[in-house]
Amino acid sequence: MIAYLRAAGASLVLDARGPYPPVVLHWGGDLGDLTEAELTDLADAAVPPVPPSAVDQPLRLTLLPTPGQGWTGRPGIAGHWAGRPVDDLRLHTVGRTGPRDLVIECGCAAGGLRVSTDVSLSEQGVLRLRHQVRNIAEVDLHLAAADVVLPVPERAEEVLDFTGLWANERRPQRSRLRDGTWTRSTRHGRPGHDDPYLMVAGTAGFGFRHGQVWAVHLAWSGDKQLYAERQATGQSLLGAGELLAPGELILPPDGTYTTPWTVAAFSADGLDGLSARLHGWIRARRPLPGPRPVVLNTWEAVYFDHDLDRLTRLVDAAAQVGVERFVLDDGWFTGRVDDRRALGDWSVDPRRWPAGLGPLIDRVRARRMDFGLWVEPEMVSPDSDLARAHPDWLLGPTHAPTWRHQRVLDLDNPDAYRYLRERLGALLEAYPIAYLKWDHNRDLLAATGAHRQTTALYRLLADLRVAHPDLEIESCASGGGRIDLGIGELVDRFWTSDTNDPLDRQRILRWTSVLMPLEYLGGHLGAGTAHVTGRATDLSFRLATALFGHAGIEWDLTTATDAERADVAEWVAAYRRLRPLLHTGTLVRTDSPDPARQLYGVVAADRRTGVYALVALDAARSALPVPLRLPGLDPQRRYRVSPLRIGPVPATLQVRPPAWLQRGEATLPGRVLAEVGLPAPLLHPQQAALFTAEAVG
Fold it and tell me: Which residues fall within 8 angstroms of residue 310, CB to CB, at 6 or more apart?
């Protein structure tokens, strides 16, 4: 059988004629209508020659490569039964379960193992693959790896992935793909701030709007590995799989293991084309519950100073500017006066809240806002009633170092799991909580346990959602340490980073949004001096930065001036007006020759409207800045381009603004706006100017 899956300009061709697991003949652009005879001709023509000093048969990269097939690169599956290795997989059957869905069954020639592989191509052209491994031997199978492997063509010469630190997530890094394997492994028990996130291979010099790219992402919130490999014999590939610690996954007779989904996508139009596929698929797969409300989170406003009178004033200030969701952050539960104690004691502090949270929530709801609450269920303070009563519920050895004065609660322990489910359930029953900010502030630091902990977390989140179907949950992991499509099935928002410094946020959002749609990514308006960096920035820059994404506020508005609160109210109103566009449109970005300048925007699905941001990260390298070229518009339509004024006017260095800005607008065809553009204002560093494009006629 030769299987041909195609959708939305992408296609996959599998040669499943055996004897080994299927060979990927093509993963990339659509090959058009092909008859069975043409597919057979393609498969026959694609058989490579036998080079000198090699196996005496054509070496072909399969979906599950092993040494028994002649493969000397990283095997797709590895493990052993009492020292006898997994090897020499053979194809059994291939079946269709849908128009673009396959199930492939393979097994070891010597017996003992069955592997079922699901392959699915969505209508957006997004490819998903996973394996289910079943041990049919009479002894335990020690599984070491079960990865998804996909070939990429030789023209994919460059590799992009990501690294980072706390409050500095999603730093891109690029290199040439050379012979050997470039592997990014994470051992945090969560993806981590240095999560590779996506492994992208592309043609030389690919960017946001040009080049062919192939990418894989592992939809998993535990330890993982992504890799790009090129063999000296000529094969290149991308791989992804859960990183299993030695002895972590032992399958008894008839035991099974299902890998996380690997999500893969191809684009002929650079990274923006990749985002368009992924965003469309994510939005269709799990639509969010209504418009993304404007959030005010109390952390950088009051920290641990939980006082009803002070918080009531903040509630009133939030309501005055148009906030729709008020979230009470850390400090509400028994004994929690700082970050060194009380995690795990999930009951309302009777000293700070003698009447419970009811009076605050009543005030929030009376001001037409819903109420959210911060929790960190996976962690426990050594100085807590829970840790003292149940030391056996803690994950890892007792002498292991704490991290942010915390230990990890073993969610795979049935008693610990039951305790959390009951305590969280009691809170959700006692109060009208619409939203949980679910934090995770440390790595596991356990030799094994990441797999069990992650699967237990998924089960806990699923249980809560079944019991409380209207509850929304945010994934926060000391900022952006757990942003992935695995937990994305169970949450409604990601906290993109713990830094609200707009200069940092510009870069972090730029790269996080390659995978995640903007409406999933929380971005907050912080105070004039950033809590994390200490950098002071103008309000106009902060407003423009926080507009793109799921907007919120992390600022004590009671300390703002009347003029600042008026500007914030104007910004909230603009966000609420623009969010249907921002959260359904196509994200577009440009590759500027000046790294100090970046331009991005969102264009409506019908391409009649768009909103853009021109951002000055640093001083321009020339007195006449790069023209304002607006991507994504319909080349045939005419558009009126106008500045979008929200809050203070951004500061510029020019003596006189461009003529079209003096007039207040320019009307030109989309093709002219994309190719020629408009003269751009010379923005002061750390400033942003907003523009709208509206179709005329």
Answer: 302, 558
- CA dist 158 → 197, 228, 231, 307, 614 (Å): 16, 10, 15, 54, 28
DSSP 8-state code for residue 47: P
How does pLDDT run across 640-691, given as a tens digit for each residue?
999 999 999 999 998 899 999 999 999 999 999 999 999 999 999 999 999 9
Q: pLDDT-derived band of residue 317, with 50, 70 and 90 as boundaries?
A: very high
586 pLDDT higher than 90: yes
DSSP, collapsed to helix, strand or coil, labels residue 362 as: helix
CA–CA dist 188, 186 (Å, integer): 6
Please give the pLDDT value at position 397: 87
- 8 Å CB contact between 574 and 582: no
Give per-residue pLDDT as tens, 282-293. 999 989 999 999
Give the pair of three-digit tokens for residue 373.
Answer: 């609450």
- Closest alpha carbon to 443 in 127, 135, 193: 193
Scan for tokens 């006692």, then name that residue.
430
DSSP-assigned beta bridge partners for residue 135: 113
Model pLDDT, residue 447: 80
Q: How confident is the model at residue 18 (pLDDT cuts 50, 70, 90)?
A: confident
Q: Which of 352, 189, 264, 251 is nearest to 5 (CA)?
A: 264
Query: Cα separation of 97 and 27, whole Å?
Result: 20
- Assess contact for 377 and 409: CB atoms under 8 A: yes
Active-site annotation holds for 594: no
Nearest to 296 by CA among 568, 691, 697, 487: 568
Over the stretch 174-211, which tens digit does the pLDDT of each residue have? 999 999 999 999 999 999 999 999 999 999 999 999 99
Other CB atoms within a 10 A radius of the CB of residue 248 amount to: 19
Catalytic residue among 349, 439, 443, 504: 439
Query: How confident is residue 109, by pLDDT bands cut at 50, 70 and 90?
Result: confident
Bridge partner residues of 598 (DSSP)? 615
d(CA 5, CA 114) in angstroms, rounded, equals 24
Catalytic residue among 330, 492, 498, 591: 498
Helix (H, G, I), strand (E, B) or coil at 326: strand
The Cα 66–Cα 88 span in angstroms is 7
pLDDT tens sequence across 421-480:
999 999 999 999 999 999 999 999 988 899 999 999 999 999 999 999 999 999 999 999
Type of residue at 599 = L
Q: Distance between CA atoms of 670 and 638, rounded to whole angstroms?
A: 6
Strand 236-242: give its sheet, edge to edge: 148-152, 236-242, 224-230, 180-186
Q: Do 223 and 189 form a contact (C-beta atoms < 8 A)?
A: yes
Q: Is the pLDDT of residue 400 over 90?
A: no
Write out the two tokens for 498. Answer: 């713990």
DSSP states along 92-158: EEEEEEETTEEEEEEEETTSSEEEEEEEEE-TTS-EEEEEEEEE-SSS-EEEEEE-EEEEE-TT--E
Torsion of CA 379, 383, 386, 392, to 10 degrees: 80
Give DSSP secondary structure letters for 437-493.
EE---S----SS-HHHHHHHHHHHHHHHHHH-TT-EEEE-BTTBS---TTGGGT-SE
User: Measured between alpha carbons, how far is 508 from 173 in angstroms, rounded to an integer?
Assistant: 13
Q: Which of 97, 99, 150 is nearest to 266 (CA)?
A: 150
- Bridge partners of 199, per DSSP, are 216
For the stretch 557-587, what's the b/e string if a residue is b when 16 or more beta carbons lie within 10 angstroms of its beta carbon? bbebeeebeebbebbbebbbebbebbbebbb
Is 272 one of the annotated active-site residues of the chain? no
3-class SS of residue 662: helix
